[in-house]
Write a structure and sequence with these properties.
By secondary structure, the protein is an alpha/beta fold. It has 23 helices and five strands. β4, α5 and β5 form a beta-alpha-beta unit. α12 runs antiparallel to α13. The protein is globular. It starts with a strand and ends with a helix.
């Protein structure tokens, strides 16, 4: 019987890049040949947070990696199936010595996957070396010294990955992406940000050389922010860039001092990014339960018509609808508009946050579990420790999109509505509607709820519940665990 080839494996997850990559660094500096793999885990893909746009971004990021790795006779091998089955298969054709990967602060299913493969690795005496990712600490019990340790981590030298040419031939396998799915993955929508490490650096460079000078000024504006925000969030989420790379590039750029206020604000947000993922790493129940269990006692109505109007951008409130349509078509809206969508869902429509959390997860091209669920609950007002923000869509519309440019771009039927009515089109008379070629209640809906009444009810309901004894008790626990 022929002796099996001894190899190591680099298991890529949310770290789709060639540089500042510790698992690759260790693999390259070991005297053992290695392969690089990515697994589209079918169990995870069945979870309601998953969407084809995420898979497309990952798939094309891998194609970008493979263009760079081709020179070294290396590539990222793509597998589709159950992770445990795939590792079992790999051990039948190779003598696997070590697995190198980053730790992943994912949903409970990804944690269960890791426990299953760890058990298998242990039985096979395979060493699994997991590396800390973006300063997020596994097994942390409280936040004491976390910020200081994060600063030390983030300012450490960037890892330079040098590749040696490989003579190891990868074998064909049965865990191929199904043909119909692969066809979908290959067709990348033109309205999405182009994926991959190469494009990540293009976005970061353009942010620092030109776009970012108005970052702080335009950060909340739905139209202007699409240019002046960094737009590196999907690249960070899927690991085309590490937070370390982005942080150090911004801080050390020659333009940093010219627009220090704007770029310092961006650095703060990179810190927040890891801060929220650390919350999720410590309590992944953020996905399915109110992190302050006292809010489980707060009841919401269930209205399928309200949910449908919210998901389809037909609530009758133009800024809310334009945000949902823009998000659906492009995969991105700014932070303020995301908060507005959640606020309107939970407070004005009186829907449980869980009825919308997966919908937005699927739409966000930059979906990151550690950001998404803690942020969603914060905006839904279920943490108990954060200020509850009830965003007024009319007020925000008038302040942030005064001429209705954003609204008209994404809601074509409102394109001819005059500025006077663009934020409240239901106030138009029949003549104005006729001149604007819109009929409220027909080709654009009447508001699904009365804003003043629903806001008043929400304030009384949610703000009042903050005084519940269980909420107050849970506040103490949350502060002890999550606040430094």
């Amino acid at each position: 019987m022929k002796e099996k080839q001894k190899i190591n494996i680099v298991w890529i997850k949310r770290d789709l890049r060639t540089q500042d990559h510790m698992p690759i660094y260790f693999a390259e500096n070991d005297n053992v040949p290695y392969i690089i793999i990515y697994i589209f885990d079918s169990i995870l893909l069945e979870h309601p947070d998953s969407s084809i746009r995420h898979m497309q971004f990952v798939y094309h990021s891998i194609l970008d990696l493979n263009k760079k790795l081709k020179y070294f006779n290396k590539k990222v091998d793509i597998f589709y199936g159950i992770s445990l089955d795939i590792f079992k298969y790999l051990t039948t054709i190779y003598d696997v010595l070590s697995i190198f990967s980053y730790q992943e602060s994912g949903i409970r299913k990804s944690w269960d996957r890791d426990k299953r493969v760890l058990s298998f690795f242990s039985k096979k005496k395979i060493i699994w070396k997991e590396f800390q990712n973006n300063g997020v600490v596994r097994g942390l019990r409280n936040r004491k010294n976390w910020a200081r340790n994060w600063n030390n981590y983030i300012e450490a030298p960037i890892i330079v990955n040098n590749f040696k040419k490989c003579n190891l031939k990868t074998s064909c396998h049965k865990f191929k992406i199904p043909k119909k799915l692969k066809q979908k993955l290959e067709k990348y929508p033109i309205n999405y940000q182009l994926p991959g490490e190469t494009n990540a650096w293009r976005y970061l460079n353009s942010f620092m050389t030109e776009r970012g000078k108005n970052y702080q000024k335009n950060i909340s504006k739905p139209t202007e922010s699409r240019i002046s925000c960094s737009r590196i969030s999907p690249f960070i989420s899927w690991g085309n860039l590490s937070v370390n790379q982005a942080y150090n590039f911004i801080k050390n750029h020659s333009n940093f001092k010219l627009h220090k206020r704007a770029f310092s604000s961006m650095l703060t947000r990179l810190h927040w990014h890891c801060h929220f993922i650390q919350k999720f790493e410590m309590e992944c129940d953020y996905e399915t339960k109110c992190i302050n269990s006292g809010f489980e006692l707060l009841r919401h109505s269930f209205n399928s018509d309200y949910l449908k109007s919210w998901k389809t951008g037909t609530t009758g409130y133009p800024l809310v609808d334009a945000c949902m349509i823009a998000l659906d078509q492009t995969g991105w809206i700014n932070f303020r508009m995301r908060a507005l969508l959640v606020s309107f869902l939970v407070h004005n429509l009186d829907q449980d946050w869980r009825n919308g959390v997966y919908h937005l997860a699927r739409l966000f091209l930059d979906y990151e579990p550690g950001i998404h669920y803690p942020q969603f609950q914060m905006q839904a007002g279920t943490t108990g420790i954060n200020i509850i923000r009830l965003y007024n869509p009319i007020k925000n519309s008038k302040e942030l999109d005064p001429n209705g440019i954003f609204i008209k771009k994404w809601i074509k039927v409102l394109n001819k509505v005059p500025k006077k009515y663009i934020h409240e089109p239901w106030k138009m008379g029949l003549i104005e509607q006729s001149l604007s070629k819109v009929t409220i209640g027909e080709n654009y809906p009447m508001p699904v709820v009365n804003l003043e009444e629903s806001s008043r009810t929400a304030r009384k309901k949610v703000w009042g519940h903050r005084k519940h004894p269980l909420v107050l008790k849970e506040n103490k626990r949350i502060l002890k665990v999550h606040v430094k």
